[in-house]
Amino acid sequence: MRKPLLIGTIVLFVVWVVMDFIIHGVLLKSSYDATAALWRPWPEIKAGVIWATTFISALCFTLIYLYGFAGVSVQRTLAFGLWFGVAAGVSMGLGSYATMPIPLSLALSWLLGTLIEALVGVLVLHWVYGRFGEAQG
């Protein structure tokens, strides 16, 4: 299980970093600019913490996939991604909206972005496991 865990975590981390850049750095840039008073100034952003949390999330997501969904059908894999994405997205998006003065549109964007990242994530891991899973050595 070490090879799919290592490769899956690294590939998923890279995919999620790219997706985060597209979602937060491009698509939601105007929303962040409009609510700039809520965020740290760019020089104070804790980039290392962001990278670490993304890596730890990719590792945990990969572990859950490998222990519960590796080798199952793509439909079951997508069901895991869907429900994980809904749970994490509701918590992140609507949970943040409940406690922070952010626009509902931003909260819903976080929910949708999290859902999409989870679905893409399980497809990536499904591919990695099919290519590098235990049966392949």
Structure, explained:
The protein has one domain. The mean pLDDT is 94. The N and C termini lie close together (9 Å). It contains 5 helices and no strands. α1 crosses α3, α1 runs antiparallel to α5 and α3 packs across α5. It is mainly alpha-helical and 137 residues long. It is globular and about 50 Å long. Helix content is 80%, strand content 0%.
**Unreliably modeled segments:** none
DSSP helix fraction: over 70%
Task: Give the total of domains.
Answer: 1
Shape from CA axes? globular
Structural class: mainly alpha
N- to C-terminal distance: 9 Å
Specify the biggest β-sheet: none
Summed up, the helix count is 5
**H/E series, N to C?**
HHHHH
Question: From the alpha-carbon coordinates, what is the Rg to the nearest angstrom?
Answer: 16 Å
Tell me what portion of residues adopts beta-strand conformation. Answer: under 5%
Oligomer: single chain
Number of strands: 0
**Mean of the pLDDT scores?**
94
Short description, anyone?
By secondary structure, the protein is mainly α. It has 5 helices and no strands.
Question: What labels would you give this structure?
Answer:
single chain, 137 residues, 0% strand
Per-chain topology:
Layout (H helix, E strand, L loop, with lengths): L1 H26 L1 H6 L12 H22 L5 H26 L4 H29 L5
Helix pairs in contact: 1-3, 1-5, 3-5, 4-5
